[in-house]
Design brief:
Elements lengths: L11 E5 L5 H8 L3 E6 L3 H10 L16 H8 L8 E4 L8 H7 L11 H13 L3 E6 L10 H17 L5 E7 L10 E8 L23 H5 L6 H6 L74 H7 L12 H9 L4 H15 L29 H4 L51
Parallel strand pairs: 1-2, 1-3, 3-4
Antiparallel strand pairs: 4-6, 5-6
C-alpha cells in the first residue's frame, strides 16, 4: 500500500540566479517558501528586498563563490532538508540569439556557462529533494547537447557517491499555454532525488484546450499613461518615425513587396522583431532584455513599453516593483521566467513531493479582459522614408545569406523554426513570426 506524506509544513526553496524573482514567485504561488535567494546583480537584489524582504539573501550573491554550509545556515536548513533547489543559469551561452548574432556560440567554453556547473556543485553539496534548472530551449540543441551531457554525467557521479537516484527529465513549455500573455518557450530540467519522473504540467490555455491564450489587451488594456510618461517612452533612433505606418501585429515585412505597405525593405532581410508591434488580440512576442532601438515588440501606440506593461506581459503580480532605471528594470524583466509558467511547474513538483493530486489551475494566470478595441489607424509613411521605396532583393533563402555562409555549423544541426530564415541580426528565442498581410 502506498504511503502518503503526513508533512504539514510548507515546502521550502533555495534559489540561485534569482534575478527579479520570476521563478521563485511561481513556486511561492504553488505553496513553497523561499528560504534563501542568491543573486549578484545589485538592482535585482534591491528588487527582491523591496518586494519580498522575507526572502533571505546571502551577503555574497555570487553563486560561483557561495559556501554551501553558509548558505544552509542562512536558509535555516541542513543537508538533505532543502525541498527544491531552483535556478536559471544565465542563458546567453545556449541562446539562439547568440548563435545568429555571432555565427556560433562558445556554449560550455563560454565563461558564463560556469554557472551551470556551480549549480550542480551546490546540488551535490546540499542534496535537495528536487533540482530544477530553467533555461532556453537552446540548452539542448541537436548535435550541441554538451550541456545536457554535463548534467547527466554530474548527476550520475552524485548518485554513485551519495546513493541518490537523480535522473534529469527535460520538458519544453510554451508560456502562452499557462496563462502568460507572451510567447516564450523555456526548457526545464527536473531531477528528483528518489528517481521519480517529472511529468509536464497540463496546459490551461492554447490549442490543446478550450481556452484561448491571454492577449496583450488582457494584460495591459486598462493601463493609461499620462503625457509625460508617453513622452519618456517615445521610440528613438533612425527608424522610430516609421513605426506609426506599421499596423498592429506586423513588423517591417509590412513594408516589403509582399506586404501591404510601401516596398522599403527586401523580404526577410531584417531580423523579424525589427519594427515589431503588439496586437491587442494576440499574446505579445518575447520581451528581450537588451533590445536595440528598433527591436520590438513595441506598444500598439508606436512607443516603447512601460516597465509595468512589460511586467504584466510576463505575468508578474500587479504592483511588483523593479529597482534601477528603465534599462536595468527591462533587463530584469526580460531575463525572468514568467511567474505563471513557473507556478505550473511548481504545482506539478509539489504534487509529487507531497503525494497529492495535481491541480492545473494557476493563480498567476492573466484573466480575460474581454474583446479588445479595433486596431488603431495606420499612418502614412513619413516623407524621409519614401526615398527607400523601390525594388529590394529578397533574402536568398535558408543558409544562403552572406552571414550564414560564414557560419561553421551546418544549419541542419539546428532546431527547425521560423528564425532560420533570417541572417541580418540577432533574434529572440520565441521562434515566432508575425503574419504578413
Amino acid at each position: 500500500m502506498k504511503k502518503f506524506s503526513k508533512r504539514q509544513a510548507p515546502l521550502n526553496v533555495v534559489s540561485l540566479y534569482t534575478g527579479a524573482g520570476g521563478l521563485d514567485l511561481g513556486f511561492e504561488a504553488a505553496g513553497f517558501i523561499t528560504c534563501a535567494a542568491v543573486e549578484l546583480d545589485a538592482n535585482a537584489r534591491m528588487t527582491l528586498e523591496d518586494n519580498r524582504p522575507q526572502w533571505v539573501q546571502p551577503e555574497n550573491g555570487n553563486a560561483l563563490e557561495i559556501d554551501p554550509d553558509a548558505l544552509l545556515t542562512t536558509a535555516g536548513l541542513q543537508r538533505q532538508q532543502v525541498d527544491a533547489l531552483i535556478g536559471g543559469p544565465p542563458c546567453q551561452p545556449f541562446s539562439k540569439s547568440a548563435f545568429w548574432a555571432a555565427g556560433t556560440t562558445r556554449r560550455l567554453d563560454d565563461p558564463r556557462a560556469r554557472t551551470l556547473g556551480a549549480m550542480l556543485d551546490l546540488a551535490e553539496a546540499i542534496l535537495p529533494r528536487v533540482l530544477v534548472i530553467e533555461n532556453v530551449r537552446g540548452i539542448a540543441y541537436r548535435e550541441k547537447d554538451e550541456a545536457m551531457t554535463l548534467v547527466q554525467q554530474r548527476l550520475g557521479q552524485i548518485n554513485e557517491r551519495h546513493g541518490t537516484r537523480y535522473t534529469s527529465t527535460v520538458t519544453y513549455l510554451q508560456a502562452t499555454d499557462f496563462g502568460v500573455p507572451q510567447m516564450r518557450e523555456r526548457a526545464f530540467l527536473v531531477s528528483f532525488r528518489d528517481g521519480q519522473t517529472f511529468e509536464a504540467p497540463e496546459a490551461i490555455t492554447g490549442v490543446s484546450t478550450n481556452h484561448t491564450a491571454p492577449t496583450a489587451w488582457d494584460a495591459i488594456g486598462d493601463l493609461v499613461l499620462d503625457d509625460a510618461q508617453v513622452e519618456r517612452l517615445a521610440a528613438r533612433g533612425k527608424w522610430a518615425g516609421l513605426l506609426p505606418s506599421v499596423p498592429e501585429g506586423q513588423n517591417y515585412l509590412w513594408h516589403t513587396d509582399r506586404g501591404g505597405g510601401l516596398p522599403l525593405f527586401g523580404w526577410r532581410t531584417r531580423y523579424w522583431s525589427f519594427l515589431l508591434k503588439l496586437a491587442k488580440d494576440r499574446p505579445a512576442w518575447t520581451i528581450q532584455a537588451d533590445p536595440g532601438p528598433a527591436t520590438g515588440p513595441f506598444h500598439w501606440d508606436s512607443r516603447l513599453l512601460s516597465i509595468e506593461e512589460m511586467a504584466r506581459l510576463q505575468s508578474f503580480p500587479i504592483g511588483y516593483r523593479f529597482a534601477g532605471d528603465y534599462r536595468a528594470a527591462r533587463r530584469q524583466i526580460g531575463n525572468a521566467v514568467p511567474p505563471a509558467l513557473a507556478e505550473a511547474v511548481a504545482r506539478r513538483i509539489s504534487s509529487i513531493l507531497l503525494h497529492q493530486t495535481y491541480r492545473s489551475s494557476l493563480t498567476l494566470a492573466v484573466p480575460s479582459r474581454g474583446t479588445p478595441p479595433a486596431p488603431a489607424e495606420v499612418k502614412q509613411v513619413a516623407d524621409q522614408f519614401r526615398i527607400l521605396a523601390g525594388h529590394h532583393e529578397a533574402h536568398p533563402g535558408t543558409g544562403k545569406g552572406p552571414a550564414a555562409l560564414l557560419r561553421p555549423a551546418p544549419l541542419a544541426s539546428l532546431p527547425q523554426g521560423g528564425s532560420e530564415h533570417f541572417d541580418a541580426d540577432p533574434i529572440d528565442d520565441s521562434g515566432e513570426e508575425p503574419a504578413a498581410a
